[in-house]
Amino acid sequence: DVQLVESGGDSVQAGGSLRVSCSSSGYSYSSGCMGWFRQAPGKEREAVAVIDSDGSTTYADSVKGRFTISKDNAKNTLYLQMNSLKPEDTAMYYCAADYWVVAGRRLVVLEYNYWGQGTQVTVS
To answer: Does 13 score more than 90 pLDDT?
Structure first.
């Protein structure tokens, strides 16, 4: 079974930085596509950033230039470095993965079958 576990969520002040992590078991980080998604209360889950098996990355417009996604295949860990945080970044952040993500649909929530439980990020 694939298990994804997020950590590192916290409460920070606007303008601050935070790094969240996603560790996994049963999933090969050198394959497929992995990403970070978020969901604020009353809103739909949305993509934040994804990284493909070749290391190519895609970001939502709202976080470009502020967030950086990376992964360490040897440690089976996915990271999201968040800088210049804004109150509108407040959400539950989820790690997701899938071996078969259609090119051009990497930011689509429905493309991912494996999800973690989330880690809360609050910016005030």
So the answer is: yes
Residue pLDDT, tens place only, 95-113: 999 999 888 889 899 999 9
C-alpha dihedral, 91 to 92 to 98 to 103, nearest 10° = 0
Residue 58 CB neighbours (<10 A): 16
Q: Count how many residues are written for the chain.
A: 124
What tokens were used for 4?
């994804």
The whole-angstrom separation of Cα 52 and Cα 30 is: 9
Give me 8's structure tokens. Answer: 């590192």
Neighbours of 122 (CB within 10 A): 15
